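User: Structure please.
Assistant: Input sequence and predicted structure:
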Amino acid sequence: MEFKEIVVKNRSYRRFVQSHSLTQEMLLELVDLARSTPSAGNRQLLRYVISCASEINSKVFDTLGWAASLPDWPGPEEGERPTGYIVIVAESSSWDWTRVDLGIAAQTILLGAAAKGLGGCMLGNVRKEQLKRVLGLAEDLEILLVIALGKPVEEVVLEEVGKEESITYYRTDDRVHHVPKRKLADLVIRSYD
């Protein structure tokens, strides 16, 4: 698969084939990809908690908010929930560049998942104290992001929109998720040749 295909295939999937199990080995492979990426100052401050255990997954699920632009949707129903999670944490006293590392690591994990025919969603709407208790994390660790993973069951369609049009994602009655994307010409504000 070409790299652009992987990038386009890497969407925020929120519904999964719950009967399709992930393994600890799969999750470790994805974290290993993140571990291999550049790190600001080579400090390597990110840490990971992985789960493919249904009991823990259920408890993680209960701490998550799923789609800010779909306020009436409580998240995936039973049978369409993620079968794996990667929780990215760091020491609370981490330096500002940790957030840059976070973006690089999270995107790399999701690109790796897409290359394997999987999908996921980065979730920042997390009841962090509750999740810390669920995972038994030390007090000095801060939950930065949760990545939900699984085999996607939903279709996500990218739509090119003009600069005055809405970029709010939405779901149609046929459960297709639509994601408006600005045109390339509207994003590149200056080009030197």
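The chain has a mean pLDDT of 94.
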